[in-house]
Write the structure tokens for this entry.
Amino acid sequence: MKILKTISGAREHIGSLTQGLEGPGFVPTMGALHEGHLSLVRKSVEENRLAGVSIFVNPIQFNNPCDLEQYPRTLDEDLGKLASVLRPDDFVFIPAVEEMYPTPVNRVYDFGNLGQVMEGRFRPGHFNGVGIVVDRLFRIVRPGRAYFGEKDFQQMTVIRKLMEIEKLPVEIIPCAIIREPDGLAMSSRNVRLTAGHRKAAPVIYQALREARQEYAHKPPGLLKEQIRNRIDSTGLLVTEYVEIAFESTLQPVHSREQTGMARCFTAVQAGDVRLIDNLRFTPDN
């Protein structure tokens, strides 16, 4: 695999291999790679003649400076993992902040309701920062397909909207959440969990699964309260939000009489670590 650190170097390498052909498959990441990330990379390698990964901790998508400072950075380990998956011509793009943002950033996106609920409500400015960095990465790499994990389902929906706004011809490929054997959704932040919080964290997925089984019989409001109570009962986890929303609009489901594919989303504080998860609630549950 090729390691690229400059925009000019990335464009030169990618351009030399894609002349007149489809752009590469691409997996944008912030590093601290785990099996969830690697599953995306493998899929990209399988589906594209050229594949690439970016590792860039994007400072402008962090609304909490402490979260940015504490975000795990494991570049050497990341490169070792990617070397076992990527092919000789595939690439890893590792730009510095100054390379990505040589001048102050002032773009403001309007993602409508997609960016105002759930993560958008609790992390002001987050999706604007995501939009800016994804737009820049896509214009550098010019991928044909980009792969995103469904753990960040709202982010993936916002990025699809970004493609409409910027008129970028990139196919966004959703990939299933990869979980630990006990059900905890894999996340780079999991390494920061204390032993006690790590032991309690699987309750998040358990609560979502229990509620899904009752989706056909209980109103959404009652199910949301049930999930919150189940998570908070650990005494170690504190639920930030629970929402049952339509996948297409991310707007709340108020009653089972409403039609459309729904998904339950939650964010939970586990000590100093913030965890998110979601689960599809199918109409025939």
Notes: DSSP finds eleven helices and nine strands in the chain.
